[in-house]
Amino acid sequence: MDLDAAATTSASEAVVRAVQDFLPWYSSVHRGAGAKSQFSSARYEEARETLVRFVGADPATHVALFPRNTTEGLNLIAFRLGLTRDDVVVTTAIEHHANLLPWRRNARVRVVDVDRSGTFDVAAVVAALDERPTPRVLAVSGASNVTGWLPDLAALAAAARERGVLVVVDGAQLVPHRQVDMAALGIDVLAWSGHKMFAPFGAGGLVVARRLLAHGEPFLVGAGR
Ligand SMILES: Cc1ncc(COP(=O)(O)O)c(C=O)c1O
């Protein structure tokens, strides 16, 4: 049963209590003038800030969106970046399909291979970043769902940023297991799944640098749900 938690956890008792406490006060978010609607909208906006701080980002520069899970978050950002078929995304052979298929659909993918141990060197990623055409995005997993291996995100992000390449991290297996500091690591976008860390199902996190969104404002994923 515990091993199943890598795929999905059930909500913790504290989460169940918090949801139960809130439900009687729920009314549509950003779609009503009533007191409950205003209360719910305020809680919704507070939750964005909580999520941003939870992963070490600054609410002044980053904003949280609420996709249902990592897959939806990565699809959203892959679409939202307005990539074309000529744009290149560097990614790796350790990725879950959630961090591969959205990029394949929206751009051209350059995949960094793994060695016999199922890992890759930072140098291999740097070589892929230096190939022409210069990529627009590095999309990499923060922790492998197969081996648990943790790539050196700080070094990868530094190499990408030096080359003006956006850093998008699949945090599905990282965020539930390690404290993440997006600012220190230099990550632009981080996606993860609440259902892998005791949240109610259908509650994911996508923290995005505001500069990547039109006018720096979030589009309201799931408002009124
Ligand atoms: C590394 C990794 N990325 C992405 C996903 C997809 O997560 P979800 O199904 O919650 O979208 C998983 C799920 O196991 C995963 O382990």
UniProtKB/TrEMBL annotation:
Supply the InterPro entries for this chain: Aminotrans_V_dom, Aminotrans_V_PyrdxlP_BS, PyrdxlP-dep_Trfase, PyrdxlP-dep_Trfase_major, PyrdxlP-dep_Trfase_small
Q: Which Gene3D superfamilies match?
A: Aspartate Aminotransferase, domain 1, Type I PLP-dependent aspartate aminotransferase-like (Major domain)
Q: Per its record, what are the GO molecular function terms?
A: transaminase activity
Catalytic reactions on record: (sulfur carrier)-H + L-cysteine = (sulfur carrier)-SH + L-alanine
The Aminotransferase class V domain, residue ranges? 3-224
Which PROSITE patterns does the record associate with it?
A: AA_TRANSFER_CLASS_5
Q: Which domain of life is it from?
A: Bacteria
Keyword terms: Aminotransferase, Pyridoxal phosphate, Transferase
Q: Which cofactor does it need?
A: pyridoxal 5'-phosphate
Protein's UniProt keywords contain Nuclease: no
Which family does the record assign?
A: Belongs to the class-V pyridoxal-phosphate-dependent aminotransferase family. Csd subfamily.
* Name of this protein: Aminotransferase class V-fold PLP-dependent enzyme
This chain's source organism reads: Blastococcus brunescens
